[in-house]
Design goal:
The chain is mostly helical and 364 residues long. Helix 3 runs antiparallel to helix 4 and helix 15 crosses helix 17. It starts with 8 loop residues before the first helix and ends with a helix.
């Protein structure tokens, strides 16, 4: 009788990650609620709908940098996932046979069942990248009031703690392994630092229009070339003939998710690409009709930045809570329209509306 094969280094890494999830899920109920709150409320969508408009309370440039870095980071995250083919814990424990060898007191949650490959973590990578300009702006703001280097580092300390907490929450819900959240966080930090050093000209309509088309078309071309070369980018190398158990990540998610209703379309890679290209198109339209420098200075003098940020936050919250169609094509069209309209509302329409109302009030 042959001895069982030795587990690979990656299997050992995955198994260690599963035991880390077991330890996290054994924690107190209040900590469970904290992990669930982080993972559900600070998902990549929150960068576009919460942090982007709120950053206007710091500076218009910071706000647009948040959106720009977020869409680049999300695009890269999809590409990385396509070629790294990372497992997700909630299906790996079954397909590896670990669940039959050990009694694992693990639970799934409505935010567990994401459908794309798992490496690197999108939550950690996109959050780490997009928050970098906010953290650096806060640090500079603190430096105006105190010469203490320690106090200037407080925003960065909070930033690191937030990324650590986000990573733990993703392990807790069985969406990622620890090594996936570490690589996602490091990639996000590096990307945020790098993109902030070389910001684009946010008044160039053609640049953002080209970016929107370039991101979408390059992704489609990459997908088709990889498929023609025999790669299934929804999971990995596609053997011939097909295996008896479907290998595509969507089918694996459907087979291993505790509740099929938890499979949300916004977690699919193509939904991320729709969000990315639409946001770039929205930046192009906002750049097409910007506030003049004189109007921007007048608005800054008349309107406290925090009130403008709050208005943008409310407008995007209403926009994204409108009902969506169940039809796949209409769903993507609907989502694309929302993410195109978001930058236009926050960056152009609402500031002009606020300025017009202020002028009307001053000169009835």
């Amino acid at each position: 009788m042959k001895p069982p094969p030795e587990p690979s280094a990656m299997d050992a890494l995955h198994e260690a990650g599963i035991h880390a999830a077991v330890a996290l899920q054994a924690g107190p109920p209040w900590l469970e609620q904290f992990w669930l709150f982080l993972s559900s409320r600070l998902d990549p969508n929150s960068i576009y709908t919460i942090f982007f408009p709120l950053a206007r309370g710091l500076d218009d440039h910071v706000s647009v940098m948040v959106l720009w870095i977020a869409l680049v980071a999300e695009w890269l995250n999809v590409v990385f996932k396509w070629f790294l083919f990372g497992e997700r814990p909630y299906w790996w424990i079954h397909e590896s046979g670990l669940s039959s060898r050990e009694q694992l007191p693990l639970r799934q949650f409505p935010i567990t069942c994401e459908t794309g490959p798992g490496s690197p973590s999108g939550h950690c990578m996109i959050l780490g990248a997009a928050l970098w300009p906010i953290v650096t702006a806060l640090s500079k703001g603190v430096s105006r009031y105190t010469p203490s280097r320690l106090l200037r580092q407080i925003p960065f300390l909070v930033y690191i703690l937030l990324l650590v907490a986000m990573g733990l929450s993703r392990v807790f819900v069985l969406a990622h392994f620890p090594h996936q959240v570490v690589t996602g966080s490091l990639a996000g930090m590096a990307l945020g630092w790098g993109l902030q050093r070389w910001p684009p000209n946010f008044f160039k309509f053609r640049f953002f229009l080209g970016t929107a088309l370039g991101l979408l078309l390059s992704t489609l071309a990459l997908h088709e070339l990889a498929t023609a070369a025999g790669l299934d980018l929804d999971w990995g190398s596609q053997p011939k003939p097909p295996p008896p158990l479907p290998r595509r990540s969507l089918r694996r998610a459907s087979a291993r998710c505790s509740d099929p209703s938890w499979l949300r379309p916004e977690t699919r890679p193509w939904a991320s690409l729709c969000r990315v290209s639409s946001s770039a198109l929205g930046l192009a339209l906002a750049a097409r009709h910007p506030l003049s420098r004189r109007s921007a200075q007048e608005l800054q003098a008349l309107e406290p930045p925090l009130s403008s940020a709050t208005l943008g936050l409310v407008a995007l919250d209403v926009l994204h809570k409108l009902p969506k169609s169940d039809d796949a094509a209409l769903w993507y069209l609907n989502v694309g329209a929302r993410y195109t309209l978001g930058p236009v509302l926050v960056g152009s329409v609402l500031p002009k509306l606020i300025l017009a109302l202020r002028r009307l009030r001053a000169n009835p």
